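Example record used in the benchmark description.
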Amino acid sequence: MTRHRNGSHGTHPRRRPGPHRHRNGGFTLLEVLVAVLILSIGLLGLAGLQATGLRYSTHAAIDSQATFLAYDLLDRIRANRDRAQDYELDMGETPTGGDFVAQDLGDWVDKVRLLLPDTGPGTGRGAAVAVDSDLYVTITLHWIGDDDDEGEPELREFLIRSRI
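Model output (structure tokens):
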């Protein structure tokens, strides 16, 4: 070890106090505030993405239900092909009658009203079924979905046409 002029031992000379003090290695309050601001903006963006994803997920789930319901009715009509014309139904209509087709169609309409939003009696929405002479079946489902980008309720539609 060497001995310095000031009498200290070591490899580095003692620093003299001066106008420039040793700066701490931490962050200033301004740096912390800027970091918190940037983090907050990022988290708000993620929250917005989460809300949008949830809305689209709900739309997709209801669209899947509509698809399932339409194919369910097509299968019911195929199983009772000789009475296919009796499955005709106007939009929003409630099936009446005591025979098998009316009961089958009534059960299906109940499922539509249960699974698709805002399709109850008197709304003018729900299900319509048309069967032409060549046994082409057209099933149309209408319901009110979540608000669109402008905040207005959106009329949603699923339509399928198939030959049985």
